[in-house]
Amino acid sequence: MRRYRELLRIPGVPLLWTSSIMARLPSTMRMLALPVFVTASLGKGLGAAGLVGGLFTLGSAIGSPWLGRLTDHRGLRATFTVVTVAETAFWVAVPWMSYPVLVGCALFAGVLAAPAGTGTRTAIAAMVPGDQQRQAFALDAVVVEICYILGGPLFTVLSGLTDVSVTLRVMAVLTLIGSGGFALLNPPTPRQLHGDAEGDHRLWRNPALLSQLFLRTSTFFVIMGAELALLGILRQHGMDNAHLIGVLFGCWAVYSMIGSFLYGLVPHSIPQKWIIGLQAGLAVLACFSGDSWWTTALLIAPMAVLTGPAVASFSEALTTVVSPRVLGQAAGMSGTAGTLGGSLGTIVVGFAVDHTAPVYGPLYAAAGGLLLLGLASLLSEVDEVRAKNMPEARQLRS
User: Fold this and answer.
1) 114-165 pLDDT, tens per residue?
2) Which among 18, 262, 341, 358 is placed 20 to 30 Å from 163, CA to CA?
3) Does position 382 have pLDDT exceeding 50, yes or no?
């Protein structure tokens, strides 16, 4: 606990996380907002809702590196001013959009969606000394799960008390307050502390960074693939009511919070590939879920406990493989990698489950995650060989 107390004594850090929570809440509500609006207000089917959600997600994946580069060059205030105006306007306008107009706007709205997570982690890298960053990223993973727990239920409650259109306007207000507050706070970035740098295009030539991106993809492939598989298992056993699903995913979030908190207390870094590989392997336990919800809740615990540490370890490692002056762009690329991994996980596991049985879903998620982990390890070996043969290659990180 002493490490966390020392972390929270750093000037500006408690305020950073307060602002981050406010900025992240609307982000967690997005997952429900567009699908519910398309189905409930526009009367369209799930396929139509999936198209809008997919376009928004694709836009987010495209925009994340660009927003990260903007952060490197202009700072977090400039980035969050742009996204606050754009995203607030989008949520205000959505209730008046027809379906074709919404389809046309979803991609561009995703490009300018507020990067609350990458913005927070970029600020942490600048504000927190290196020997305390593991605790900081672990605590940030706890904050992510808190927002995840609050965001979905908040949207559901607001929609139940009013209607979806009113809830979307509330989201616009929350976006204005949260992202706008982040812009006003204007946390520092590593580039602002380390001066200007050239050669941002070299990020794609950095095998160590590419290895980290594959690790990120692997982690989210397992997470999203296992979540989809869990839904299929619950449906197979007749336990797919909304209340039970909420309880189990709430358990997952709590497990992840516990794992993140404990990870920050460990005095030495745990090898990142061990965490990610173990998380993927333990996903297989969910294959043995029976027809009782509590058995399922227990079997997902080992994998879920490692979810937060896996994400935190990536954030920690990213600061060591790229120059601090291009960390924003690298963090944006990591956001794209996570989005790609999650999308691949749901597509691959969903397709495989449809052609076999839901009980094998966690196995497919684990296999895909381990395959991506193997590719990451290969790139890591390439980086080590390259560094031995060409020491000047390390200059890509400086």
Assistant:
1) 999 999 999 999 999 988 999 999 999 999 999 998 988 888 888 888 889 9
2) 18
3) yes
* Residue whose C-alpha is closest to residue 238's, from 283, 285, 293, 288: 293
Residue 199 has pLDDT above 80, yes or no: no
Cβ neighbours, 10 Å, residue 87? 24
Mean pLDDT confidence for 339-360: 91
| Residues in the chain, overall count | 398
Give the integer Cα–Cα distance in Å for 314 and 304: 16
CATH number for the segment(s) 1-189: 1.20.1250.20
- For 184-193, what is each residue's pLDDT tens digit? 999 999 888 7
Q: What is the mean pLDDT of the chain?
A: 89
The whole-number average pLDDT for the span 8-13 is 92
Same fold? 1-189, 199-398: yes
Quick one: DSSP state of residue 257?
H
Domain spans of the chain, in order of start: 1-189, 199-398
Rounded CA separation 126/128 (Å): 6
| Secondary structure of residue 112 in the 3-state scheme | coil
CB 326 within 8 A of CB 191: yes
Runs of H (alpha helix) within 12-75: 13-36, 46-74
Instruction: Kindly report the pTM of this predicted structure.
Output: 0.90
8-36 burial code (b ≥16 CB/10 A, e <16): eeeeebeebbebbbbbbbbbbbbbbbbbb
Cβ contact 179:113 at 8 Å? no
Look up residue 360 and give its two tokens. Answer: 């094998």
As its CATH architecture, domain 199-398 has Up-down Bundle (1.20)
Spatial separation of the C-alpha atoms in residues 131 and 135, rounded to whole Å: 9
161-170, 206-215, 232-241, 317-326: the lowest-pLDDT one: 232-241
* Residue 269 contacts residue 130 (beta carbons within 8 Å): no
Question: Which of 283, 280, 336 has the alpha carbon at shortest distance from 310?
Answer: 280
Q: If you search the block for the tokens 């580069």, which residue do you land on?
A: 69
